[in-house]
From TrEMBL:
All residue ranges annotated as the Aminotransferase class I/classII large domain in the record: 28-379
Highest taxon of the lineage: Bacteria
InterPro entries on file: Aminotransferase_I/II_large, Kynurenine-oxoglutarate_AT, PyrdxlP-dep_Trfase, PyrdxlP-dep_Trfase_major, PyrdxlP-dep_Trfase_small
Transmembrane segments: none
CDD domains: AAT_like
Protein name: Succinyldiaminopimelate aminotransferase apoenzyme
Length: 387
């Protein structure tokens, strides 16, 4: 039995670790945990090797190497029209995960409330618990074959203890991309109640038939928002754990205070490599996103052929399928690797009220097309073995 402190007792092994272990055990096609099975831009990889060989292997500056902070600020300005000072308003972190924890730990008092939109990425719940704060989950609302933010429900959940709202668009696990209109309405609520906002935009570049709205670009939001992003998803380097937080100096200073005692700094040699990608690899990124869109079509077609109802996805590399009203997604996903050699993630584990999400299962399509075709072939077995 784990001896963990009370505030962490609800957290056991993450669902990603469990399902990836099951995938490995049964040699399954892993469409569960979101990581790509191909590499990022070749020149970016070479730069990381060159940096190691040339001796850039010691602690870097506390806020990250200037070359990467400048590249992150330039990308925000170029892609989203938002200005940040690379010296005082950009922090390099150990992945977006550390940026999330440091933001909550640095800015949210114990006992206050943080609103998350359900289903929510698991790291938010853990960060809130670590900070001794209270999580208040507001479900997303169905919107045709996808989901959107229920702004009235968010408004109704706000109390005098609410300190922060966490927004994630493009959204993991649903693949929903929240439109500018709904985010503008949500922003007005945050301004009215003077809430801080953590905007997790790690999937900002993985967008199909939709437009990404950077939350900090909306009226009244720049001054109250910590934006988090990462090299992981845009540049196929989930293992480099290189992310960042952007915020006005008074907010970012609080994030820095927490971060410096979590890891002090991230890995030095990856930072110039990621800076290169942000500055020079737009064409590679466009190609990768085009491949991803085709990958999505392969997987969606395969899931439909397997007899599942499939929701729309316009961002991330995830798509949600429905296994039928009587199905339990958790059991389905635990069995799937052994049953047909495919791994997936149950959506209900991202929910405080799993009920409405019980039959929803997330599949990842950020994989080589050969991997997806192999997964789709195995999914066909589902149809013949159902019932
Ligand atoms: N936020 C979301 C919504 C994610 O899906 C992930 C996983 N990539 C992260 C944050 C963590 O990113 P990183 O691997 O850079 O820590
Ligand atoms: N973000 C990835 C996902 O949602 C997994 C990251 C992790 O394992 N923590 O699948």
């Amino acid at each position: 039995m784990s001896r963990s402190v009370r505030r962490l007792r609800e957290f056991s092994e993450t669902v990603f670790a469990t399902m990836t272990a099951r995938a490995t055990e049964f040699d399954a096609v892993n469409l569960g945990q979101g990581f790509p099975d191909s590499d990022g831009p070749p020149r970016m990889l070479e730069i990381a090797c060159e940096e190691i060989r040339s001796g850039n292997n010691q602690y870097g500056p506390g806020r990250g190497l200037p070359v990467l902070r400048e590249a992150v600020a330039a990308q925000r300005s170029r892609d989203h029209g938002i200005g940040y000072d690379p010296d005082t308003e950009v922090l390099i972190t150990v992945g977006a995960t550390e940026a999330i924890s440091a933001t909550v730990l640095g800015l949210v008092e114990p006992g206050s409330e943080v609103i998350v939109l359900e289903p929510y990425y698991d790291a938010y719940a853990a960060a809130i618990a670590l900070a001794g704060a209270r999580r208040v989950a507001v479900p997303l609302a169905a919107d045709g074959a996808t989901w959107t933010v229920d702004v009235d429900a968010v408004r109704a959940a706000i109390t005098s203890d609410t300190a922060m709202l966490i927004i994630n668009s493009p959204h993991n696990p649903t693949g929903s991309v929240f439109g500018r209109d709904v985010l503008t309405e949500l922003a007005a609520v945050c301004v009215e109640h003077d809430l801080l906002v953590l905007s997790d935009e790690v999937y900002e570049n993985l967008i199909f038939d939709a437009t990404h709205t950077a939350v900090a670009s909306l009226p009244g939001m720049w001054e109250r928002t910590v934006t988090v992003s990462s090299a992981a998803k845009s540049w196929n380097v989930t293992g480099w754990k290189t992310g960042w937080a952007l915020a006005p100096a008074p907010l970012l200073d609080a994030v820095v205070t927490a971060k410096q005692f979590m890891s002090y700094v991230g890995a030095t040699p990856f930072q110039p490599a990621v800076a290169h990608a942000l500055n020079h690899e737009q064409e590679w990124l466009r190609g990768m996103v085009a491949e991803l869109a085709t990958g999505r079509d392969i997987l969606v077609a395969g899931l439909r052929e397997a007899g599942l109802q499939v929701h729309d996805t316009s961002g991330t590399y995830f798509v949600v399928a429905d296994i039928g009203e009587s199905g339990d997604g958790l059991q389905f996903c635990l069995d799937l690797p052994e049953r047909i050699g495919v791994a997936a993630i149950p959506v209900q584990v991202f929910c405080d009220d799993p009920g409405p999400w019980r039959s929803k299962v997330r599949f990842a399509f950020g994989k080589q097309h050969g991997t997806l075709h192999r997964g789709v072939e195995r999914l066909r077995l589902l149809d013949s073995r159902q019932g």
